[in-house]
Amino acid sequence: MKVARVVVVGQGHAPAMAAIALRRAFAPVGVEVTWVETPGEAPADAVLAGLPNLLAFHQLLGLDPAAVLRETQGCFTMGRHYVGFAGEGRDYLHGFGPVGRPIAGLPFLPFWLKARAEGLPAGFGDFAREAVAARNGRIRIAGDGETTQGLHLDARGYAALLRRQALAIGVTIRPDTAPRALVAGGAVRRIGLSDGSWVDADLVVDASEDAAILSALGTGDPVDASLSGVGRMLVGSARPLRPLPLYSHVAAHRAGWTALHPLRDRTGVAVAYDPALMSDEAAMAQLPVPLVRDPVFVPLTPRERRKPWIGNVVAIGAAAARPDPLAALDLHRLQVALTHLISLFPVRADAMPEAGIYNDELAGWSARMRDFAAVPHALNGRQGEPFWDAARARPISSDLEARIALFAARGMVAAYHQDSFAEDEWETCLLGLGVMPESWDPQVDRVDEQQVMADFRDQLAAIRADVLAMDSHEAALHRAMA
């Protein structure tokens, strides 16, 4: 018996993305998708951050890029600017693009490490075109030499756009206040609605806030996924920044961190903190810019389900995980989950061996993302502050320990499968947090130093000329929405 009826449960952008992705992928083979939409919406000030691959995923969803920007007050982003994590006065820009180019067929970083040890004044980030462009407010969104960029999106506007797209492509939407799982034979074969009716299901995608559908199968509680003592967040909005930045700004404070996420019409503001060390009033005092309205305060309980696919129910979004918010990877996690669900879409409704592979794959991807998000906590250089001292003392995965040790020894990033971040990005973050390798690949010693210096000069000149020829952020947005 083939899977012919998919039911998605939840509210907001996660169930909408799932419904659209599944409908577009499997409608040609007769799969019907029903979205049981539950009440609620994101906080009015919430902002979503998307990595560069979100733009390609939007194409798969059939979204018009101009409409996405227009209807979400969206703007481009080329990285995240971390301030104070390595210690007061220190910062680094985690840019999305590559850093440097190979020299004599060898990777760039060991040449830079050797030159730095001999007095090279240029920083590692000076060889990152996207980072240099972002700091100068420049970007290229089309044609030869297009930059690598992601998006900042208003959460409510994004959810509304996705809902309209779901309706336009034939997703049936059934609003309901309290849908419930009707379990039979270890599977959820029907979703009961408040009026006494039900929706038949071969496959259920649980995108609810509390994972109510998956929990009906008796899966137990999710595991803790905290990377620090952050347990509460202030969410608000400030006036738009001018000129419009091309990166988010994240700054450490004594009990957590603050973040600014630019949009065209406002700036999303977040203050994350440990409520045992900081009051709501003290969190307000951490605001780097004045708010335009009263903020909301939301609890943070990072958690993750080890097996998001049980029986015929797949949990995504908040139902599957609430990751530590520092790295802003919610949208990316959702995209990874949906990509794997489409590739492993079950061929039979009465037996789903795909679940085991899906759970293993998602566990791998999640572990790599958790490691990347843990780095600013584990390697922070803020001494004498209880929050940050405790963050450094938290255990990290053996994979991350090995990655840090290898990089500290010779400037090499260990390669793991299921990694969302490129080698250059790991290098940037580890260097930015103060991990300076003790040595480097000795192969670079065979390359003539004058040749290397000439190559460095060529790279820096090429980046400078390229960035000067790029558009401003505002001009690029105008062109993208035309």
Automatic annotation (TrEMBL):
Pfam families, per database record: Trp_halogenase
Name listed for the protein in its UniProt record: Tryptophan 7-halogenase
SUPFAM superfamilies: FAD/NAD(P)-binding domain
InterPro entries assigned to the protein according to its UniProt record, in alphabetical order: FAD/NAD-bd_sf, Flavin-dep_Halogenase_NPB, Flavin_halogenase
Highest rank taxon of the organism: Bacteria
